[in-house]
Specification:
The chain has six helices and no strands. With 143 residues, the protein is mainly α. The mean pLDDT is 89.
Length: 143
Amino acid sequence: MDLYFAACQGLGLALAAGVFSGASARRGPLGVLLLIAAMIGGGALFGWSLDQEDHAAWPGFVAGAAAAAFAFVVVRGFAEGVQARAQEGGYAGAMIALAALVLAGISLLLPPVSMLAFAALLWLYFARRQHAARKYEGLRTLR
C-alpha cells in the first residue's frame, strides 16, 4: 500500500473516531472528554495506519487529531438537531455510532472511501452553517 492509501485509511479511521464520539451529542465536561478521546484515538489510528506502511507516523498524529475533532464537532451538532426533533429520544445516536463503525470497517477494506466521507462531512458542515445564516435572515431585513 502506498502513502495515499495509508493516508486514506488513516483519515477514515480518524473520522470514524470523531463520528463515534460525536454521536452522543454531549456538551459540557463530558463533551470535552469525548472530544479529547476522539482526538487521541483519531491521531493514534491515523499514525498507526501510516506506520504500518513504513511511513513517518507523526504527521498522522496531527492530521488524525484534526480530522477527528472536525468530525466530532459536525456530528455533535447534527446529532443534537436530530435528537431535538425526535419524539421519544429515538435511536439516532446509536445509528450514527453504527455508521461510524461501518466507516471504520470500509476504510480498512477500501481506503479511498474515506475521501467521500470527508466530503460528506464538509458538505454537512457548510449546509448547516448556510441554514443557520438563513434562519434569521428575515429578522435582519426588518431593521
